[in-house]
Design a protein that fits this description.
Elements: E1 4-9, E2 24-25, E3 28-29, H1 35-44, H2 59-64, H3 66-74, E4 86-91, H4 99-106, H5 127-137, E5 143-147, H6 150-164, E6 168-171, E7 176-182, H7 183-204, E8 209-218, E9 221-224, E10 229-232, H8 240-246, E11 251-254, H9 257-260, E12 268-270, H10 274-287, E13 293-298, H11 300-306, H12 311-329, E14 337-341, E15 360-365, E16 370-376, H13 378-388
Parallel strand pairs: 1-13, 1-14, 4-16, 5-6, 7-8, 11-12, 11-13
Antiparallel strand pairs: 2-3, 4-15, 6-7, 8-9, 8-10, 14-15
Function: Isomerase that catalyzes the conversion of deoxy-ribose 1-phosphate (dRib-1-P) and ribose 1-phosphate (Rib-1-P) to deoxy-ribose 5-phosphate (dRib-5-P) and ribose 5-phosphate (Rib-5-P), respectively.
Subcellular location: Cytoplasm
Main location: cytoplasm
């Protein structure tokens, strides 16, 4: 039986979302945001990196139809070869531009409710949430209680955290409640247990994720570690992973997929930074069982470059991914399908530091050349199920 590899390059939007004007970064609507299109333009004009000019070098994704998908989604013309893959552009209907909304819908389930977002003010959290955190942590208070950048908040409050032992709690424009704590001084296991204890309360409020954000180091040199863990709200209905697993097939999760779906329908998880995840994906292309699904997320496009508005770093990461993708494509079996898509945008040329509402590319290897046109996020799940021969 053929196998399917569904790869999400986190935040690589291609502009053109019809409802972008109803989503904002601060006071600025997302109308006109185009993560990939603006990176391509910045590279071509030398604005992506000092001393560099010329096109973004992503030949394998271009050959699958990436440039054509950008033009279809946003109207921006992109030079590239005639696609030899099956390509299209997908539009989201869930009222969110975040990780759970995008991934759930790619897996066939639009979010059936409005997420809860915390106000952009200080304090950001209601008294009952603060009290629950204090009770679970065994402290008399919390730090932060605001919207903040994760790296900035530990730099600003890390010293006070070490002095008081209070957890650092913050949020963003997404539906998230994040808790940062020092792995040694506060304890990693204690932080994970704290997040697990308060997650039910936050999930009842329809907050999508409680995220543990451990860090290490000393004052003036704090660094987040790879031990992040997302405690996500359970999908309210079966998703792609459930359907494949219920059909008796193996489901492998690479990256944060296991956290996003709260391990629903997942047999095995492999984690690490993006380069480690690429090795895991290569191993699974060689080893995954017949008829299986591998669902992967490469998060550093979003976490390291999109939110930090690092155009140069984003461009380099795209080029690294494309080079590795070329190797993977050469290792696919004749009856395999590999599909590359994204979950939302995060235009590094845009205002603010938040996600941007965009369409996403859908690039399919293993199905020949063809055009999907404008499709829905949920059609991605349908493509995978059809390839695997699993009932929709």
């Amino acid at each position: 039986m053929g196998r399917a590899f569904l790869v999400v390059i986190d935040s690589v939007g291609i502009g053109g979302a019809p409802d972008a004007g109803t989503f904002f970064n601060g006071d600025v609507p997302d109308t006109g945001a185009n993560t990939l299109g603006h990176i391509i333009a910045a590279c071509a004009t030398g604005q992506a990196e000092e001393g560099r000019s010329g096109p973004l070098q992503v030949p394998h994704m271009m050959a699958l139809g990436l440039g054509a998908a950008v033009k279809l989604a946003s109207g921006q013309a992109v030079d590239g070869p005639e696609p030899h893959g099956t390509w299209g552009a997908a539009t989201e209907v869930s009222r969110g531009k975040d990780t759970p909304s995008g991934h759930w819908e790619l897996a066939g389930l639009p979010v059936p409710w409005e997420w809860h977002y915390f106000p952009d003010e200080t304090p950001a959290f209601p008294d009952d949430v603060v009290a629950a955190v204090c009770t679970a942590a065994g402290t008399t208070g919390i730090l932060g209680n605001c919207h903040a950048s994760g790296t900035t908040v530990i730099a600003d409050l890390g010293a006070e955290h070490l002095r008081t032992g209070w957890p650092i709690c913050y949020t963003s424009a997404d539906s998230v409640f994040q808790i940062a704590a020092h792995e040694d001084h506060f304890g990693l296991d204690r932080l994970l247990q704290l997040c697990a204890d308060v997650a039910p309360l936050l999930h009842d409020m329809k907050v999508g994720r409680v995220i543990a954000r451990p860090f290490v180091g000393e004052v003036g040199n704090f660094q987040r570690t790879g031990n992040r863990k997302d405690f996500a709200i359970l999908p309210p209905a079966p998703v792609l992973t459930n359907r494949v697993q219920d059909a008796g097939r193996a489901v492998y999760a690479v990256g944060k997929i296991g956290d996003i779906f709260s391990m629903q329908g997942i047999d095995e998880v492999r984690k690490g930074d993006d380069r480690t995840l690429m090795r895991h994906l290569g191993d699974l292309i060689r080893e995954a069982a017949d008829g299986s699904l591998t669902f992967a997320n490469f998060v550093e496009f979003d976490s390291l470059y999109g939110h930090r508005r690092d155009v140069s770093g984003y461009a380099r990461h795209l080029e690294w991914f494309d080079t590795e993708l070329g190797v993977l494509l050469g290792q696919l079996r004749e009856d395999d399908m590999l599909l590359v898509t994204a979950d939302h945008g995060n235009d590094p040329t845009w205002v603010g530091t938040d996600h941007t509402r965009e369409r996403v590319p859908v690039l399919v290897a293993g199905k020949g050349a063809g055009t999907l046109g404008q499709i829905a996020f949920t059609d991605v799940a349908a493509l995978v199920l059809e390839h695997l021969g699993v009932a929709q």
